[in-house]
Every structure is written in C-alpha cells, then in structure tokens.
Amino acid sequence: MAYDTPFVPRPNTGSLFVNKVKRDENSADYSGELLIDVNSLVVVDGVATVKVWGRKKVSKAGTTFLSLSISNPQPQQGQQATSPRPSSSLADMDDDLPF
Q1: How far is the C-alpha of 42 from the C-alpha of 74, rounded, in Å?
Q2: What is the pLDDT of residues 2-13, one digit of tens each?
Q3: Which of 7, 20, 13 minimizes the C-alpha distance to 59?
Q4: Under a CB-based contact definition with an 8 Å cutoff, are residues 97 and 34 in contact?
Q5: d(CA 58, CA 75)
Q6: Residue 60 — left, alpha, or beta (φ > 0 → left; ψ -120 to 50 → alpha)?
Q7: What is the 3-state secondary structure (H, E, C) of the chain?
C-alpha cells in the first residue's frame, strides 16, 4: 500500500527503523531521523543534553520501528544555562552521523 504524503515528524520526535541492508558487521543496526528544535535546547557549559524515550510501534505498512521523543532535562543546581551556539548548523553535524 502506498501513501500520498510522506511522514514528517513533529519537533523533538523521530523514528529508528531496522537497517535491512548492512555493508559489513560494523554497519548500523538501525537508522532514521530525529527532528530537534534547537531553539528549545538548554546548553550548559557548551553542551546540550537531552532525555530520549523510545517506544516500539508498528507502522501502517506493517514495519516495526522505534518511535523516539526527546525533552530537555532541567539544569542541575549551580549550573547556568546558555543559549545554543549560532555558528554551528545541523548540516555541519551530518558528517559525524554513523548512518
């Protein structure tokens, strides 16, 4: 069954699907996308940390996948949050992704 509109994740959500084609034993077992609203990140000492939740689901096409959602943990007492660094872009970070 084909669908007319592609799935677009909501901000701070994503999915991981089983990687059916593995080139070698070191290839990723899962791959997918995560849409992060960078304006909502809490940055402490130059690092943004997020909490991640995953739920096992089945798509309309019958494929099992992990549905992901993230949220910002509250800064610990004594730490000061700063805004994200505007000089980095998501396009620059794509080169470091393993899939």
Answers
A1: 8
A2: 556 776 778 999
A3: 7
A4: no
A5: 35
A6: alpha
A7: CCCCCCCCCCCCEEEEEECCCCCCCCCCCEEEEEECCHHHCCEECCEECCEEEEEEEECCCCCEEEEEEEECCCCCCCCCEECCCCCCCHHHHHHHCCC
Let me know: does 45 contact 79? Beta carbons within 8 Å: yes
Q: Longest C-alpha distance within the chain, in Å?
A: 54
13 CB-contact burial (10 Å; exposed 0-12 / middle 13-18 / buried 19+): middle
Contact 66, 56 (CB under 8 A): yes
CB 32 within 8 A of CB 69: no
- pLDDT tens digits for range 57-71: 998 889 999 999 998
Please state the rounded mean pLDDT for residues 37-42.
Answer: 86
55 touches 74 (CB < 8 A): no
Q: Kindly report the average pLDDT of the chain as a whole number.
A: 78
